[in-house]
Amino acid sequence: MNIHEYQAKRLFADYLIPVPTGYPAFNPAEARQKAEELGGDSWMVKAQVHAGGRGKAGGVKKVKSLDEVQSIATQLIGKNLVTHQTDSKGQPIGCVLVETPTGIVTELYLSLLVDRAKRRVAVIASSEGGMDIEEVAAHTPEKIITRHVDPVTGLQAYQCREIAFAIGLNADQAKQLTFLLSNLYRLFVEKDLSLVEINPLIVNDKGELMALDGKVNIDDNALYRHTDLAAMYDPSQVDEKEDRARQFDLNYVTLDGNIACMVNGAGLAMATMDIIKLYGGEPANFLDVGGGTTAAKVTEAFKLILSDKNVKAILVNIFGGIVKCDLIAEGIITAVKEVGISLPVVVRLEGTNVAAGKQLLKDSGLSLIPADDLADAAAKVVKAVKG
Q: Which residues take part in binding substrate (predicted)?
């Protein structure tokens, strides 16, 4: 789960990570009010969307009057912001962050993420802050420093000093980075984060380190023990179908193709998409209904699939393990009858009670296309789409 910049900065402040003073505003009048509370003669107005590249897209403005604060907020709130990280529709702006400007001397990059290959948290830093880290990695990889944290001993002070001097900080700033990084690592572990990124981490005109921006991703599987973080979820920033899937505990990602997939198990779902591509088709989604799926979840899955107007055929690929194939077949039949599907539906079942499941589908009277194996299923669904 992603959260907004202003929410990330609240977490940073809770862990004593320096951030500029600022407040979210959900309408133009509130933006003006927050600017008045901050005082001064200039303010930053920043669109809050789950996407990078806001500044280049016109979503971050420095203004020098209260009227201008309100005017920029009016231009942003309720509109969509299109950046290089969004699709052509962009992301809706529900609020802005009104913030005190900060004098910038140096821009740095800092992030923590889970390195699955190493099975450790990786700390990544660069002297090239304010840029896309992918661009830095592609063109000047020597300017990126990475340190892995032993989960037993935790982040060590010597690692922080190595990072600090590698990105050009002086001795005093190295002490600041050690304090900041130690707290950032504690935040990462205690809140079950999968990514935290500060870009840029700046040295201000007083020689102090400060998080000028913040991106935080939270492991969805840990949200049950972080109700405060779960409350930060913003459905407006998520594809509508993906939001509905979340409500029914379905793992769903929208894709650009026209063959919908309904599969139980993430690995099997990826294999299903691969074989559809192999046979010349294009998957319309990733959809994992889970190992313990039910008729109700299958029904909701079909409804999700049919809400995508690009879908021309459906491939159901289920392995009966935890739930037996005959029960899955009953769920498919119930769902197809309830939803009223007119598209071609190819069904491949395998696993426990597979013979009974196939017989139920055969006797259902529905126009379901049976498949013997995954290759057969892919060939049939691609043929159904191509006519």
A: 264, 321-323
- Cβ neighbours for 17, distance < 8 A, ≥ 6 positions apart: 180, 183, 184, 187, 211
What's the pLDDT score for residue 291? 67
Distances 222 to 215, 236, 370 between C-alpha atoms, Å: 18, 22, 39
Instruction: Tell me the backbone φ, ψ of residue 119, rounded to 5 degrees.
Output: 60, 40
Name the catalytic one among 5, 128, 197, 350. Answer: 197
- Cα 353 to Cα 141: distance, rounded to the nearest angstrom: 54
Residue 241 is labelled as binding a ligand: no
Looking at 109, 185, 330, 350, which residue is catalytic? 109
Identify residue 311 by its one-letter amino acid code: V
Sign of the C-alpha dihedral computed for residues 117, 121, 127 and 130 taken in this order: positive
Known catalytic residue: 197? yes
* 207 labelled ligand-binding: no
DSSP three-state, residue 104: strand
Evaluate if residue 347 carries a pLDDT over 70: yes
Give 133-155 pLDDT, tens digit per residue. 888 888 889 999 999 999 999 99
Cα-based angle 213, 216, 218 (whole degrees, multiple of 5) = 175
Place of tokens 């973080």: 229
Higher pLDDT, 106 or 352: 106
Helix (H) or strand (E) holding 156: none
Spatial separation of the C-alpha atoms in residues 126 and 171, rounded to whole Å: 17
What is this structure's pTM? 0.81
**Tally of CA atoms within 13 A in the half-sphere of 286 that contains its CB:** 11
Question: Is 103 labelled a binding residue?
Answer: no
102 marked as part of a ligand binding site: yes
Q: Tell me whether residue 321 is annotated as binding.
A: yes
Sequence-ordered alpha helix ranges (H) in the chain: 5-14, 28-38, 66-76, 133-139, 157-166, 171-190, 227-230, 240-247, 266-278, 295-306, 325-339, 354-363, 374-386
Total Cβ atoms within 10 A of residue 106: 18
